[in-house]
Structure formats: structure tokens, C-alpha cells
Amino acid sequence: MTDVTISLEGGRQDSREAGFGDYFALLKPRVMSLVVFTAFAGLIVAPGGLHPFLGFFAILCIAIGGGASGALNMWYDSDIDRVMRRTQSRPIPAGRVSREEALGLGLTLSAFAVIMLWLATNVIAAGLLAFTIFFYVVVYTMWLKRATPQNIVIGGAAGAFPPMIGWAAVTGDVTLSSVLMFMLIFMWTPPHFWSLALFMNADYDKAKVPMLTVTHGKRATRNHILVYTILLAGFAAAMFATPLAGWTYLVVAVVMNALFVRGAITLWKRDEDEAEADGYKAEKAFFKLSLAYTFLHFMALMVDKALFSFGIGGPF
Ligand code: HEM
Ligand SMILES: CC(C)=CCC/C(C)=C/CC/C(C)=C/COP(=O)(O)OP(=O)(O)O
Q1: What spacing in Å lies between the alpha carbon of 304 and ligand 2's midpoint?
Q2: Is residue 2 part of a domain?
Q3: I need a surface site. Which of 182, 189, 236, 288 has the fewest CB within 10 A?
Q4: What is the CA(95)–ligand 2 centre distance, in A?
Q5: Ligand 1 pocket check: which of 31, 40, 146, 182 to mutate, most ligand atoms within 8 Å of Cβ?
Q6: pLDDT tens digits along 139-186
Q7: Mind listing the pLDDT tens digit for each residue in 162-173?
Q8: Are residue 62 and residue 141 in the same domain, yes or no?
Q9: How far is residue 153's CA from residue 160's CA, in Å, rounded to a whole number?
Q10: Which residue windows are transmembrane per the record (predicted)?
Q11: Residues 124 and 255 in one domain
């Protein structure tokens, strides 16, 4: 373990020796938990089956690959992370892990995860994992994030691939059903992130990251959240008419989309004085709801798959 004591302007300097927890934090474990869960859902709802050991190993590879992409994101973004309050105590800006170590860890784990997934399952799943890491690190982090307020709309595709990877690990292909799961996350990402940006705007402003809240203001961001949430609700409802979804999905989709649209309308109606006065309560609640939204939709798809296998429900 290395003791890094470089001086980093703005970062919260911490010269204690780096421990396992610091290297683990580089993998963005909290965010990746939902990424891994959606990959797991893709694997479960795919037709056919994988030996439980191989299935577990495939999910482990996706988790390692996702974590590695988080480390590469932190390697490249250490200058931004040093400026933003939310990210200042991450291992690199805090001075506990060097950029070189994060780069080395990210590249090694990426290669390991892709090769192992290939050996354990197939080239399509491994290729998708490699492409996802590339998309998050190169397309989103290195290019779009600092270039355009559409950064997360396009870059969000990276976070939408994991269920496709899980599906491909079982079937070895990319089909309409796996693309539908991709689309659900792809359309969910903008409301998920922009609600957070509403109460984290000062950070992005300070770091000069062109998030929509910075370039077009919070009013425009609230309008965008509403439009994307309505589009998402339409798409989520239409997914009921596909063989992937059953009655559990329908119930979850109706409840969660009603709540999500209601939340988006609440955010749309609020002005900044009101939001500041109550500490962005509604925005924070909407962000939390966004996490439950994805978790429950994918959970419902898995429950329906189990019910189908008992002959209950059956594809619509
Ligand atoms: C480009 C797309 C995305 C952007 C820009 C984005 C941005 C963010 C940010 C800035 C946070 C706060 C992170 C922190 O804790 O420091 C966050 C939290 C989170 N995101 Fe996303 N996100 C994206 C896509 C996703 C995807 C695809 C998933 C999973 C399917 C996801 C799951 C989560 C979770 C679970 C948290 C909460 C972590 C916690 O408990 O602190 N995000 N997101
Ligand atoms: C399997 C695999 C490779 C999965 C990757 C999934 C993926 C791309 C998730 C995106 C999640 C995320 C935290 C984006 C944050 O944006 P940011 O990096 O701008 O956030 P930050 O400010 O917290 O660093």
C-alpha cells in the first residue's frame, strides 16, 4: 500500500496510508450496486439458463468491469473531483491514492473482467462489457462530460448496457428484448441525474462542468426533467406489451411511473426561492425515488419471469 503525500490544491489533504477501503472506493461501489443489479436482472430474464456458478462469475466480472470504469473515471476526473465538495474526499483528491495507481488498477481490472467474462461466457457479452467501459471512460468522461450539456443524455448509454451484458452472457446475442431494457435505463438517466444536479449545481458551476443546470439554468433543467419523465413513463408503459413483462411489471410500472410523473410535476412547479428555502427537499426525494424506480422495474421483470416459469401470467 502506498503512502501518497502529494499536495493537491483544493482537495482535503490526508496523508494517512492508503488502505483496502480507499482502493475499494475507487470502484464507486454504491453507484455500481444498481448497475450490477440490472445486469443480474438481464441475466435472469434471458431465455435459457447458465450454470449458477457461471452466472455468479459473470456478474462478478460485470461488477469488476463496472468498478474498474469507476476507477478510470476518477483517474481522469481528479481535477474536477478536487474542486467539488461532494467528491473532495475521494481517495485521489484526498491524496491517499495517486492517479497512476488508479489508472493501473482501472486498466488491470478492466482487462481482467473482459477476458474472464469471455472465457466464462461468450465473446458478445465480453465485447459489450469492453464497449461499456470504453463508452463510460472515453466517450462520457474524457469527451462529452466537459464538452456539452447533453453529456449525460448521450453518455447515459454507458449505464444502460449492463442488462444487455447480463442477457448476452446467457444467450450470446443482442435482441429486441435486451434493447428494451437498455432503453428503459437510457431514458431514466436524465431525470435521475438532473434532479441531483439541481441541488448540486454549485459544485458543477465551481468545477466548470457544463451540466444543464450550469449552461441553461435550473428552470430549463426542471422543464427537461418533466419532458423526459413523461417520455420515460410512456416507454415504461409500452414495455408491458412485450414478452418480457407480466402483471407484476404492470403494477410496478403503473405505481412507480405515476409517482415519478407526479414528482416531476412538483419539481416543475417549484421556483428556486422555494427550493432553497426548504433545502431542495422535493429534488432530493425525486432523486431517491429515481433509484427505487429502476430497482423495482427490474425486480418486477425478474418476478414475472419466475411466475412465467410456474405457468402464471405468461407473456402478454
Ligand atoms: C451518465 C449517467 C449517470 C450520471 C451522470 C449519474 C450521476 C450520478 C451522480 C453524480 C451520483 C452521486 C454519486 C455519488 O454518490 O457521489 C449518482 C448516484 C447514484 N447513481 Fe447515478 N448517474 C448515472 C447513471 C446511473 C446508472 C445507469 C445507475 C444504475 C443503473 C446509477 C445509479 C446510481 C446510484 C445507485 C446512486 C446512489 C449512490 C449512493 O447511494 O450514494 N446511476 N449518480
Ligand atoms: C459495466 C459497466 C462498465 C458499467 C458502467 C456503468 C456506468 C457508466 C454507470 C454510470 C454511473 C455514474 C456514476 C455516472 C456518474 O457520472 P460522473 O462520472 O460524472 O459522476 P461523479 O461526479 O460522481 O464522478
Answers
A1: 29
A2: no
A3: 288
A4: 21
A5: 31
A6: 999 999 999 999 999 998 999 999 999 999 999 999 999 999 999 999
A7: 999 999 999 999
A8: yes
A9: 11
A10: 31-50, 56-76, 102-120, 126-144, 151-170, 176-202, 223-241, 247-268, 289-312
A11: no
